[in-house]
Design brief:
Length: 368
């Protein structure tokens, strides 16, 4: 199994201010076409791990589709992912009509089944993956790795058993918002048990859209890095899902990952607006704390020139023009997600040796 260090370039003595030797990825004042070519070359070596896709739900409404041939009715298919150098795709199990409802567990399981079915029906282009190693294996075989999640925390109800079942079926990320055990005061005692059991299983916590108290408590409690799968910088755009600088800094200090969404509402209408958010998150939280979420096929409007999954090279070209180093870009697109997944896997293995599964009940812990 490939090691993370095989995928991240190491720094060398001499060269530019960032410690890297002068290389073809950073020539000064390069023409736009040449910069785009360099972006393609960099992404060929360090593809995009896209942190959020609404593809499963979008496909439910199509009478027929072929992702390997191409599908104009959606934003994501295999040809466009290859053109955009997408190496891994986190497929959301969220429900567009909202997190509640009596059928939330069944609907989440149906979404998970949809992901598995889509992958099985497109074996030449897609491969189901759960671990960092499986993602690399898929990439080495020329497939896009499809990772199930995030799902909404309401799918658990008050049952840690459901969490374990979802994990056994492939779930890798759970969003901690809108539940009885995550609220404005933060995690309840049962919510803390949920996070500990997620750590034991290797399910990553997503706190996008959570209250500041929930974000702070989850970051402090979790033994694995915490994700924000769809959060940008509130200092640049006051969207409720975007993070203020103090939470960005805390996330970075804890080794977490803020995955900036490519949406006009959260980041702005242009490629430059998205790049501004990426610059800001990098500067406040560090280059190890920033990632990408296309949010394609999730019903949102995307910035100009970032309309579908093929457009990632245009964003990377903009960052190259701003002086991002190859190391920083490799972390942004691929390395940071690999680090987070590896950390979750190693923590889970250690935790499973130390303790048994939790059977805590919300009625026992969260008594008024």
């Amino acid at each position: 199994m490939a090691d993370l260090q095989d995928d991240i370039p190491t720094t060398a003595e001499g060269g530019g201010e960032d410690g890297l030797p002068d290389d073809p990825f950073r020539p000064p004042h390069a023409p736009a076409g040449e910069t785009l070519e360099r972006a393609h070359a960099l992404l060929a070596a360090h593809p995009v791990a896209d942190g959020y896709s609404g593809l499963p739900w979008a496909l439910r409404h199509l009478p027929w589709y072929d992702l390997e041939l191409g599908e104009a009715a959606i934003d994501t298919d295999v040809p466009r992912m290859r053109e955009g150098h997408v190496g891994a795709l986190f497929c959301s199990l969220h429900l567009p009509e909202g997190p509640g409802g009596e059928r939330v567990v069944a609907a989440t399981l149906e979404q998970l089944d949809q992901v598995r079915t889509v992958v099985e029906n497109h074996p030449e282009g897609l491969r189901l993956a759960r671990t960092a190693g499986q993602i690399i294996d898929a990439r080495n075989c020329g497939r896009v790795a499809v990772v199930p999640g995030p799902a909404h925390g309401t799918a658990l109800g008050d049952s840690l058993g459901i969490l374990r079942i979802l994990h056994a079926l492939g779930l890798r990320v759970l969003t901690l918002t809108g539940t009885a055990w995550t609220d404005r005061p933060g995690l309840t005692r049962f919510g803390e048990q949920v996070v500990r059991e997620m750590n034991r299983l290797g399910v990553l916590a997503d706190v996008s859209g959570a209250s500041p108290a929930t974000v702070e408590r989850t970051v402090a409690l979790s033994r694995t890095p915490v994700l924000c799968t769809r959060s940008a910088a509130r200092a640049l755009r006051p969207h409720p899902a975007n993070l203020p600088d103090d939470l960005l800094a805390a996330l970075g200090e804890a080794g977490g990952l803020c995955m900036v969404p490519l949406t006009a509402e959260q980041t702005g209408p242009t490629v430059r607006d998205v790049a501004d958010h990426l610059d800001h998150v990098r500067d406040v939280a560090g280059p190890e704390c920033v990632g990408l979420s296309g949010t394609y096929d999730s019903g949102v409007t995307h910035p100009h020139d970032l309309a579908d999954a093929s457009r990632y090279p245009h964003l990377i070209a903009e960052l190259l023009r701003r002086g991002w180093s190859e190391t920083q870009l490799s972390l942004l697109t691929w390395g940071n997600v690999q680090r987070v997944l590896r950390s979750a896997d190693s923590t889970a293995r250690a935790a499973q040796h130390r303790r048994e599964a939790s059977h805590a009940k919300i009625t026992e812990l969260d008594v008024p």
